[in-house]
Design goal:
elongated; about 90 residues; alpha+beta; five-stranded antiparallel beta sheet
């Protein structure tokens, strides 16, 4: 795992391919690192792109993962809203 200080992080799954999950770690809304894990290390419900989890890191190891379905849905909705706003602006230029 990339060097992350011991602590709690928000973890967002970027992608899951061939049994491997790329996960980005955030603290206070700022990305602080990323790493690749065996997908089966993640909670079963959180083994998909854009899943939001909390992760506890101790001695460069994730010791606990927790999937957050409501936060996952909220982030997806915010991303869709931003996309829709951009699409509307592009449509205004025609």
């Amino acid at each position: 795992m990339n060097q992350l200080p011991d602590g709690s992080y928000t973890a967002v799954v970027d992608s899951v391919e061939d049994g491997l999950a790329t996960v980005f770690f955030e603290q206070d809304g700022t990305e602080v690192g990323h790493d690749v894990f065996e997908a089966d290390e993640l909670p079963e419900q959180g083994r998909h792109a854009n899943a939001v989890l909390s992760a506890t890191v101790v001695d460069d190891e994730v010791t606990e993962w927790t999937y957050h379905p409501k936060e996952t849905e909220a982030r997806q909705n915010r991303a869709q809203d931003r996309f829709d706003q951009l699409s509307e602006r592009l449509g205004d230029d025609s």
